[in-house]
Design goal:
- The complex is a heterodimer.
- By secondary structure, chain A is mainly α.
- In chain A, 69% of the residues lie in helices and 0% in strands.
- Chain A is built from twelve helices and no strands.
- Chain B has two domains: 30 residues; 115 residues, Alpha-Beta Plaits.
- The chains are: A mainly alpha, B alpha+beta.
- At the A-B interface, helix 1 of A face helix 1 of B.
Amino acid sequence: MIDPQLLRILIALVGILGFVALNALALVYAERKIAGHVQRRPGPYEVGPHGILQPLADALKLMGKQLTTPRDADPVIFWLAPILCFMPVALCILPIPFGPNLIALDLNLGMVLILAFAGLGVLSICLAGWGSNNKWGLLGAARAVAQNVAYEIPLLLAVLSVAFMTGSLNLATITEGQGTWPWQWNVLLNPLGFIIYFICALAETNRAPFDLPEAESELTAGFHTEYSGMGFGLFFMAEYANMIVACSVATVLFLGGWNGPFAPGWWWFLLKMYALIFLIIQIRWTYPRVRFDQLLNLCWRWLVPLALLNLVYVTIIVKL
Amino acid sequence: MYRLEEIKRAAQGMWSLIAGLNITGKYFLQPNVTIHYPRQEVDNLATFRGHIELIPEDGDPLTPRCISCGTCAKACPSGCITVTKQKAPAPTPEEVEQGIKPKAPKDPETFRLDFTLCSLCGQCVMSCPADAIKFSQNINIAGYSRQDFYFDLVARLRSRLPKHINKAE
């Protein structure tokens, strides 16, 4: 007999990979459409009605392109990096409760699993930059490491504040700890924690205005300068998948997960998640990229002290 | 004091971030200002400066208003205009008898424009005493070789190309 738990995880992994790939297509389209409309132009329009098939054409193009390894690059590290970048994301989605029963792996330490595997992302970026034997790549990798190590701390403190309130690291328990109505969600009890988490999530997923590791104007493409075809495609998909993970976690921790007035369920979860993703995309097309010293100043001089203050505030709330 | 000042600045910065999102959010909901180019054209083509073309006579759309004086060729800083006058027709026997020399027609035989050199400055249009030159509105001009941009404007006028034809000549 096959272990039902194993079967469940296998089905969940296949489902998650499909979900992630479809989402990458949809989000690329959404990103370009939103970018277009923010700048008051139509965005992709030619492939299919209103350009709806554009991401499909892009994907075919990426898959059809030749994979080149730069001379003097380390081929093992170079090709390990994109795979290592994409794989942990699938694991990060496993413990996320999309609905009351829609959870792949109900772990007591789900939050820790997500944080641990999200940390692998920076390793893959570091390997990618190091392995490509390219000065832009190396600079991008150095920036990514400095940035992610710095932003991990306020992120953890913000997550910790929620863990204090709920007394659990199980994402399903955290969801159930919040009520049906918006004023019962953690975002209103702990607004500073939400803001800190959101800023750190932007930095962790290397999204604008914190996209210094790939900073087109300074580093051509940063850590993925040398990648062609699906090597680049995997980094690309990982970026969008990371956005999904970051927004899902924000939804669970602060926005009440699948809770919602009138028929709670996975649709509430997806609604909140995509609203956050929309906000992230809008932020990308609104703010200019920060300078590196500004990035680290913001983290060490503002977010870390504020996150610590927030912890004190949360403990007082819990005590009362 | 210094810390307070910094906190105030940070608060103002946060407010400006929200203001920025507000602006892009509003723009997101407003209609597009661009057009779908190959299917639509902008509505201010009258101000477009294409290569020059000859204006025909009022009653005769095949004869240019040009008097072959060559002022435009002299005024052109790039030297891209060459005008050749028409020769006088051979005199008829009666004219020979009466001793009259036939006059050459005023309009030019050829009006050559080397558009590869033209900088669209408009000196020729301004200097023309007969007001015979104007900018064309051929926005889709394209060609495969340099020779595609050597025009004979008289022949172009005679062929009476409709406006906005894609081919150069």
